[in-house]
Amino acid sequence: MELTIPDLSLVVLIGASGSGKSTFAAKHFRPTQVLSSDYFRGLVADDENDQGASGDAFDVLHYVAGKRLAAGRVTVIDATNVQRHVRARLVALAREHNVLPVAVVLDLPEDVCVARNAARPDRDFGARVVRRHQADLRKSLRHLRKEGFRKVHVLRGESEVDSASFTYERMLNDLRHETGPFDVIGDVHGCRAELEELLARLGYAITRDALGRAVDAAHPGGRRAAFVGDLVDRGPDTPGVLRLVMGMVRSGHAFAVSGNHEHKLVQALRGRKVTVAHGLAESLAQLAGEPEEFRADVESFCHDLVSHYVLDGGALVLAHAGLPENFHGRASGRVRSFALYGDTTGETDEFGLPVRYPWADDYRGSAVVLYGHTPVPEAEWVNRTMCLDTGVVFGGKLTALRYPEEELVSVAAHEVWYEPVRPLVGTPPARDGQVLTLTDVTGNRSVETGHHGRIGIRAEHSAAALEVMSRFAIDPRWLAYLPPTMSPTATSARPDVLEHPEEAFAGFRNAGAGQVLCEEKHMGSRAVVLVCRDPGVGPARFGVEGGGAVHTRTGRAFFPEPLAGAFLERVRTAATAAGLWAELDTGWLLLDAELMPWNAKADGLVREQYAAVGAAANAVLPRAVDALTEARSRGIDVDGLLARTTARAANGAAYREAYRRYVWDTDGLDGVRLAPFQLLASEGRTFEDRDHRWHLGIAARLRDADPDLVTLTRSLLVDTADERSVAAGTAWWEDLTAAGGEGMVVKPLANLVRGPRGLVQPGVKVRGREYLRIVYGPDYTETANLDRLRKRSLGGKRSLALREYALGLEGLRRVAAGEPLWRVHECVFAVLALESEPVDPRL
Q: What is the mean pLDDT of residues 62-81?
């Protein structure tokens, strides 16, 4: 006999003592899958037959079973389980963990069980116990399904037990073997014309029957559609939508999960008592005009829809109302209810509708969850979840997400087909002004980003950012972006350096970035340049007069006027000569760059912090060496002190040389150099999808237009899987640093990269041995100091870099899309607030 069990289930063996349950379990299941009551009695009482220990033994057994089920592992309970109250605890355990309980009954004759027990010296309880077990079993057999067991297998007699075998069956919701690509479509609600338009825009070819009705749609590239439920109700053509979707599903061109409206439609078609509301009346009236065979087909199709699907190896989950991570791939009434209806807080809003629990706000799973159910004006990411119901039936639009590309495609509703009880929610509130208000930036807050989920901002960090922004920042209307911090590469184990390219190359290789671009690191100050094509762009686009702005990474003006205006005019003229305005069809450009020399912005810092230390070392240490040398010549034992002082004098000289390389005189813009390395955004788009060679090509065109202002960033492409390429990259870094260069930045060539563990660092810096004297002090190269510094922790810096990077990308997306400035400032302010996190500033 072949017995099927779900591949995620709790298997309960049921049989009298002596029926061979343990032998049966050992034959068909792995030892780790089987939890035996005898074994757990032995654990708690050192005697497997101590019936007095059964209570404690089953407590432990249930605890272990719960841990296995929570982890998604098939679990087998080896005990008599002939009494209903014992089985009830196991069924409840399965329901608690949303797995299917399966009963396997070994119904052997009483004399066989008695004989087997008699042959075992540890079973001395005689035939009466077996007789009682058999009586309990007889009373149970007819009621096992009513008790909650989803499958019941009864094996009668020794031959059936001996010939039994097990086959695992895939859960109905398990489509992990389907890897896409998919086009996931939000709630259609009977809007057949809009669905056809969306499918056509997605590239599907629609098949029609002899009456011209759409009955299938296939994509020439093999893509498949996936519907998140609520195909029916409210709209003008529910039968047309069902005819098309049923055809696509049955031909293998689409998948569909059930929505709450399909569930209620099935109840109505079966004559059950349901409230005919929320558009159900329209569906029933439209279906009444269809043949009886079609209505029966609809009832069968909608009834068989599963609650949710897990696809693409577990990386994608589809559920009508969404689904928390602990429900993914599970099966129970609770899971189905959540998938179809969601969860509510128990409250009602001003329209009398239930307030739904915002489960997506707490979602931290790795799988992408796509859902619908509650209409929103715009589909937006919330912690790797997205609601695709954009209210087409209410006059909104019908939206699809291309997966895995994560590209949204929408078509507008042809008209308002159904007046909503509640207006679409989620639209950013109207503002009296463009800029952030105080309540937007105080207290604990979070910002939703498209690439890193929700990022939290602590109240104390917001307060520090508010101080900087309100007192020192440029006019906020120009402040569209703040660049993220950058993490150094992993600390090197080499005896003479803290940072080395080998760790950078290995880190990106392990993160899934095979090709990287090494860029020369300029020692200047990070600068963001927003430049306008002509004087009319600033007032029209940003609401402020002027040609743009150039500011530091904390939002402060880089130059005073009129020098800033002259600088922007030079950049504008270079962009015009390079043909960028016409090529990008934009009135403004946003550039990320390094501005040199270092003292152009940090002159006070150089004089007061670095030059002061260098001058003190130069004034004191050489004289101390002379004095100690003279003392030694008089026979005084100062050899140790002299050696240390001589080394410190050499370190002090090296320190002065290190910072002096990055300082030179300027007169106005004469001597000022701009090294742009990335074009961040222009009107209507961002450029994180362009590889870094493209960005450096833009910089080269600006350099050609104004070589006196713009300087190139030298670069080298490295294949992290090629030893010779890695060696060439290392040699290039050694040449740069030996010639006095700061070092290099290693970036994924493709720019924005997602690896197996999520967002990959946009770049890491690999700084040279001599440059790091500026950072860690003149004597950092002494062995004891290097050993101490190797223990520096980079985890906080890396986390900070990724969060600020994601916030920057989100702000760029918003400014390029023309969103209100307060929405852009939300991201800018968050980056500045994160800078207050307690991370070692030398990293």
A: 94
- Smallest Cα–Cα separation from 248: which of 284, 205, 308, 288? 205
Instruction: Please answer whether residues 461 and 443 qualify as being in contact, where contact means their C-beta atoms are separated by less than 8 angstroms.
Output: no
- The answer to whether the CB of 773 falls within 8 A of the CB of 661 is no
Alpha-carbon span 348 to 356, nearest angstrom:
9
> Cα separation of 237 and 286, whole Å?
7
Give the neighbor-by-neighbor strand order of the sheet with 743-748: 487-488, 764-767, 743-748, 515-520, 715-719
Could you read off the pLDDT of 209-256 as tens digits, one per residue? 999 999 999 999 999 999 999 999 999 999 999 999 999 999 999 999
Q: What is the dihedral of CA 718, 722, 724, 729, to 10 degrees?
A: 20
Query: Look-up: residue for tokens 């759409």?
Result: 214
The amino acid at 336: R
Contacts of 212 (CB under 8 A, 6+ apart): none
The 10s digit of each residue's pLDDT in 532-583 is 999 999 998 888 899 999 998 888 888 888 999 999 999 999 999 999 999 9
Please name the amino acid found at residue 157. Answer: G
Q: Which of helix, strand or coil describes residue 680?
A: strand
Torsion on CA atoms 608, 614, 617, 622, rounded to nearest 10: -140
pLDDT in tens, 664-714: 677 788 888 999 999 999 999 999 999 999 999 999 999 999 999 999 999
Is the Cβ–Cβ distance between 256 and 305 less than 8 Å? yes
In one letter, which amino acid is 132?
A: R
Please give the Cα distance from 369 to 440 (Å, whole number). 29
Interior angle at CA 247, CA 245 and CA 251, nearest 5: 120
Q: Which pLDDT tens digit goes with each residue over 515-533?
A: 999 999 988 889 999 999 9
Nearest-angstrom CA–CA distance, 701 and 759 = 30
* Neighbouring C-alpha atoms within 13 Å toward the C-beta of 192: 19
- 448-470 residue pLDDT tens: 888 888 888 888 887 877 777 77
For residue 266, give the nearest of 310, 318, 312, 229 by alpha carbon: 229
pLDDT tens for 604-655 read 666 667 677 778 878 888 888 888 888 888 989 988 898 888 888 888 777 7
- In the numeric block, which tokens belong to residue 79? 């005990």
Distance between CA atoms of residues 225 and 634, nearest Å:
92
CA 349 to chain centre: 31
DSSP string, 722-789: -HHHHHHHHHHHHHHHHTT--EEEEEETTSS-EETTEEPPS-EEEE-TTTHHHHH-TTTTSHHHHHHH
> What region does 441 belong to: left with phi over 0, alpha with psi -120 to 50, or beta?
alpha
| Residue corresponding to tokens 């029933």 | 284
Whose CA is closest to 194, among 2, 469, 337, 396? 396
Positions of E strands within 109-199: 151-156, 165-169, 174-175, 182-185
For 615, what's the count of Cα atoms within 13 Å in the CB-facing half-sphere?
7
Q: Rounded to an integer, what distance in angstroms lies between the CA atom of residue 102 and that of residue 5?
A: 7
- Give the C-alpha separation, 370 to 354, whole Å: 21
pLDDT above 50: residue 432: no
Q: Which of 137-141, 196-200, 422-426 has the lowest mean pLDDT?
A: 422-426
CB within 8 A of 653, min separation 6: which ones?
Answer: 617, 618
